[in-house]
Amino acid sequence: MPTYIQGQQHQTSACASLNTMEVPTISKFKVGLCQLTVSSDKNQNLIRAHNLIKVAAQQGARLVVLPEMWNCPYSADDFAKYAEDFENGDSSPSFSVLSEVASCYGITIVGGSIPEWCNGRLYNTCCVFGPDGKLKAKHRKIHLFDIDVPGDISFKESDSFAAGDEPTIVDTDIGRIGIGICHDMRFPELAMLYRAKGAHIICYPGAFNMSTGDLLWELVQRARAADNQLFVATCSPSRDSAGCYAIWGHSTLVSPFGEIIATSEHEETVVVAEIDYSEIQRTRESLPLEKQRRADIYRFIEMDH
């Protein structure tokens, strides 16, 4: 299965070395996680996103991450209404704002996600913009969130969205970034693929609900970071956002050892924290998981299933 590495316009084959990790231009920098409050007013959401990105940039963030569905309420009734066709600039104000702000502040933006119209289908899509304001990558949510817990929550994202079918890795001046959206984080195979292709950090915009958030939000992101010995950044809307369910919040940055570097509570805020990629190498040298991995055994397990 080829992995598409965007930003350098090339592909790497699945037989590439598991230990491949290029040294980025900048190895120590600040990341900003913009946990914004999403309202039913799209223009206000754009203004709020711009303002929080500005706050992060003024505090020195070189990489800024937005939440899942930051331009519209997280509700099946609203996705199509707020959706944008990225090929049509006049009908894509959210896309345009992120491009302009990235260029204005000279930063890389992992633009959370917004509903995207493309060829008559609706996708949950994350756009990544470089410091020049140009689109570097686009990730369509691969694993759609369908849940039915009697007496608690019932939601079927697959009724609204089509699933993406490609992993997304983007090369930037602040490292190689793997992208996932919310429920993508639940699947370790995707994170393992990103690690195998040399990602330094995986960014997961998300909107976990109160039940899955309490049980799984911190647990899963720490597991993805620790198992793959890389950084993980998550960004959520605030809890008082509009939508069909209450959102957990708690945007977080996790170290390659699975330690929480910085996190928030549930209100609107900007988390700014430092990333030092030398921690990746130190972690992998002290605990060489790749050398200890028993792929010979795992192959037989996969064959049995």
Automatic annotation (TrEMBL):
Pfam families: CN_hydrolase
Superkingdom of the organism of origin: Eukaryota
Coiled-coil spans in chain: none
Gene3D superfamilies per record: Carbon-nitrogen hydrolase
Keywords: Hydrolase
UniProt key word Hydrolase: yes
Residues annotated as domain CN hydrolase: 29-277
SUPFAM superfamilies hit by this protein: Carbon-nitrogen hydrolase
GO molecular function: hydrolase activity, acting on carbon-nitrogen (but not peptide) bonds, in linear amides
Protein name: Omega-amidase, chloroplastic
The species this protein was found in: Theobroma cacao
UniProt gene name: LOC18596203
